[in-house]
Model the fold of this input.
Amino acid sequence: MTAIKRWITQHRALLILLSVSAVMLLLGLGAREVWGPETRWANIALQMLQSGDYLDPYLKGSAYYDKPLPSYWLITATASVLGELNHWSLRLPFAICAWLSVWLIYLIGERLFNKDTGLIAGWMLITTFYFVFWGRVATADILTVCGLLAAVWWYWRGPEDTRFSRYCVFFLLLALTSLFKGLIGFILPGLVLLPHLLTEQRWKRHLNFRLFLALVIALMVYLSPFALSHLYGAANYGESGLGLVLRENVVRFFAPFDNLGPIYTYLIYLPVYTLPWAPLWMIGLWVAIRNWRHIEPNSRWLVWGLVLVFAFFTASGSRRSYYVLPLVPFAQLLAAWWVTRHLQQRQTKLGRGWKIGFGLSASLLIVVFGVLSPWLNGGGGVIQFGKDVQAQASAQAPWDDWRMVMIEVDNKLPFYVQNDNQPFYFVSEDQDYPRQGDSAALFAWLDKTSGQHFDPQRTLIFAQQHSGDPLPLSYLSADHQVVSSKMNNGDRVLHHHDVLNVAYIPAVGGSF
Done:
């Protein structure tokens, strides 16, 4: 116990940082609707759990190998542990990675400079709005940030170490990071560490057989999910995981087909994504350049690493605001370096004003994500819609007895009406389903098209209605109850009412 108390005393500041970080990342995590890109992760993970096929990702019933498999496996594994796929099991792995990122930037700052720099960098990162925002969203971008920081931290633990075990861990971190989003898991750590490897020709020390062998092992690990998908996945799946890696990482870089932001995209979004501390890393960059010959080598490495990664993202033809996320921790580390240097020059410690500033920033984000966000998502929306449909359908039969047919729905809806019956049947807008007629015609079309039988008395039909448009599949209302979604508090405040979800529940005693 004495040793534990001594450790806690020595690391009290770090424990406070990590505890506050956990609160900020977890508070209200389960109260917000799935949003934006995370709807794809939710939909694909749900279909994996429903079908038991974890090697062939599907989005609304169609093959969709947009990202490697492990990011979906993180969600399905967490859902298995927690017992169901919900907001918590969807987002928890990503929030944990964001929390680890705060710890890792502290460790990197401590190793490169000192403990104070690591702590300031950690506080700046966890009080950065967009870092906390994306740390609470189920997408692979925060996994890339965590993997990049882990690789950089591991390298700096022993940059001169040439043992085989050191190489193995480093390259396995790169392989795992690449399996979450793409080949930038290999590229970004290489760019960040390249300036240090080139200095004093350190790279020559690492040209050995042990490094080559560790790289081969890491490549085998990286290729294994693709090999499993190819060998044991569905024969008629129709998409190649490695083919899409090439398309998403190489073709997109040189010949982009979407996300065509202007070349100055990151000049705008790096400052935005590092608020409220953006002015500090800008000052740090100016001070570092002005005193280039007199600052410590580690500071020069940090600047070079930032410049190279920024140049890489800018050189890519495909640009999007949140692609800049991997730069955010290093920008905040540069800001922390300048603050520490400034304090040392004035021979003072981190004053009360700084602590109050970090406290106020953290408190504001806790209010935003823990109080305001849950309220905005309450009072309606797709969350309440799912509950309403389940309540009305369960009045006729147990929820797990119902089959679901999804006709031109958005990605988020299936997440809120899932049950333990057969996988959902999705109908896309380009299919020639009966848009006019009656229920009998629709169910006859479903049976013929799917090769399955849908019991009209135990099948729920879902569709979506755009604001101002007539009710979709309105002929179903003759023998079905209609349940429509309503605006949540956020929609009411913003006067936003674009898409409604609609469910058709068989009427009791209806004729089919």
About this structure: The radius of gyration is 26 Å. The beta strands are 58-59, 62-63, 403-407, 425-427, 459-466, 480-484, 499-506. The first strand starts at residue 58 and ends at 59.
